Each structure stands twice: as C-alpha cells, then as structure tokens.
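We read letters as residues; the integers encode the fold. Take this protein.
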Amino acid sequence: MTHPSDPSAAPPRRLPRTLAERWTRPFARFLAIQSASGVVLFLCTLAALAIANSPAAVPFANFWNLHLAIGVGDWKLDESLLHWVNDGLMTIFFSVVGLEIKREIVAGELRDPRKAALPIMAAIGGMLAPAGVYLAYLALVGETEGQTGWGIPMATDIAFVVGFLAVLGPRVPLGLKILLLSLAIADDIGAVLVIAVFYSTDISFVALGFAAAGLAAICGLNLLGVRRVGVYLAIGLAVWLAFLKSGVHPTVAGVMLGMLTPARPWVGDRTLAQILRDALGRLREEDDGAVEHHHKPLLDQVQTAAREAVSPLERMESALHPWVAFGIMPLFALANAGVIVQPAAVGHPVAWAVAAGLVIGKPVGIVLLSWLAVRVGIARLPVGVTWKTMVGAGCLAGIGFTMSLFIAGLALDGTLLDAAKVGTLAGSTVSAALGMFLLVRYLPR
C-alpha cells in the first residue's frame, strides 16, 4: 500500500459533486481533447501538403500504396495502407462518432426535443444547402463530371471548429459551443446516412444478414449483462468484416457498434454507496495493518463496483477518444490531405463547387433553417447568441476537412478526387477565416 505521505502516490481523482457536473464532465473533456487535436490535425495537414509538393512526393505516395495482408490459410485481407487507414482505422473513428451520438441523444442537447430542434434544423440546412450549391454550380458551368460528389461539402469537422473556438476563450458563450457541437453530431448522423445509402455499391444481402445477426447478438449480450470486453471485440470484428464484404462501407459498422454501447452503468449510485458503506464498516472492525491480505476479496469487489458505476459508453469514449483525436485523425490527414496543387486541379469546376458549398452553402443553410425554426416557435437561440454570431458560427461550420475528404474518396477518383481535395482545403480555410473574423467582431469582449 502507498502511504499518504509518499510523494509518488497519485492524487485521487475528484468525483463529480452534482448531477449537472456528472453529465457535463464528458462534454468538457470532449471539448478539451478536440481543441488540442485540432492543432495536431492542422500540423499533419500542412506536413502532408508540403511532402506531396516536394521531391519526396513519389516515395510518399508509394508508401501509402504498400500492401499489408492479414489472414489465416487461404483466407486473407490484402489491402494498401491507405485502405487500411480509411476502411479500418476510420471505423474506430466512426465508432467514437456513434458513442458521441448516443451520448447526445441520452444525456445531451438531442435528448430534449425543444433543445434539439435548433441544432437539428441547422444541421439539415447545413447539409442540404451545400449539396444544392455544389450541384447548382456544376450545372451553371456545364460540368457533367463530378456530380456524384455532392455529399463532399455537407460535413463539419468538429475538431477544427472547437480548436478555433478555444482561441477565442471565454468570449464564446457556452450556448454557442453546445449548439455547434450538437450541430456537428446531427451533421455526422446525416453524413453516415449519406455514406450508407448513396455511396455503397454491389450490396450483398447475405453479408448484411450476417452483420445484422452480429448486431443482434451484441444487443442480446447487453440484455444479459455480459461484461467481457473481449467477447464484444470479437463480435464487433465479425460485424466489421461482414460490412466490408456487403458493399456498405465498413465505417457504418463502427457507428452502429458505438450506438449499441450501453449508456447506463451496470452498478447504480445506490448500490455503489451501499458497497462502500459495507466495506468501510468491515475495514473499521479489523485495522491490523494487513488490510490488503485479509480483505482482498472485499477490495476487489469495491474496485469492480467503482468501475461498473461508470457507464460502458463513458468508459469506451474516454478510452478511444484520445487515440482517435491524436492518432487516427492525424494519420488520416497524412494519408489523404497530401494532394499535389496543380493549376488543373485548382481551376477545376469540382474544386470551385466544393469550396462554394462550404463557404456559401454552409452558413446560408444553417442560418436560414435556424431562423425558420425560431420564427415558427419550435426553437430559440441559446443565451448569449445573436444572429450575427450565428452567421459567424455558420461560416466556421464550413470547415469540412476530415469527413469531406473521407466522402470525396468514396465519391470520386483520379483528377476529380484531387480537385475535390483542393476545394475542401481551400473552402475550409476561407470558412475558418470568415468565421473567426465575424466571431471576433460580434462576440462581446
């Protein structure tokens, strides 16, 4: 046992004192991680662009085209490193997205229909308007190629958005932070639906049947109270493989697995309190300096109860979120943001269509449908948020990046994909500059 005076002893973790603090702690931790990861993501994007436009461009591209095979006997998966990142590691990213969606629906802004109305309406406008601007621009210039990329400017990259909000510090009202986070979560739901419905090909209903059986098995294990993480990992891997072979993008499996994670702890507050009272009572009865020896079963019970008093959702999100924020997303940026900036790509109509969708479509759609929701009385602006700051927030939501690059890789290829990446980077940069300018100007000092 460590003595209280031992300087190497770790300080105890402070427990939340109120119910409100208990619910908001994951939100605060989420914002802290996202703001820091936005910096890492930005640096990796610059590095990818610099390498792709340097003499090291060819070996850099060849590296991501190296193949890695995993298999047993005659069965194996043989994919390039780029595909392992986009189809494998990004599934973990989408599972965290699923966890965030579940948390927002159970305990966040999306739980209350009146509070959820504004971010949901804003997200709908922020998806429909950019897609409309994209298609309208291509039709205006007479471009027939690239129309399948209409989903590219629909997404919002919450890591960059939160990072820029962190720069403004306490000037940003809490209501605006919650609105943008909830909007991004609702936006993610729409993006996942778009990927599943419009960017899936050669559907295998047999493989989907196996995936459905795996998801049903997870639901059954949850109901039975099975707590073995290894069991869920094995079934989750099987579900991912089934989606991989089904024609539906495997990242959808990540979202569904995340949303199936229980949001309530298996040990309630009253049960935990009773266990702790019993443990303290028994420890007071015998204080002979050999507590660990005599009461090891009791201490194990307390440790298990303390762990199970935290919901699986919060435990999974706390465990995976840092790895996603500081590992998977930067790696995705290195693998996908390295586009060679050429005049053909910069001047391509697809690049301009994506940029217009992010810079114009995002704020117009968000503000217009938000105004409509407030006008008809189904929503209201958060405290401290004005329509001028809503315009700034709408522009900031035009930072698409991660999800936009991901959808671009599904929708387009070759020259069109390069143009879409250039448009995503340019549109996200302009959106960030406009959003920060408006927020700095109109937020109270």
In short: The radius of gyration is 24 Å. The chain has a mean pLDDT of 82. The beta strands are 67-72, 75-80. The longest strand covers residues 67-72.
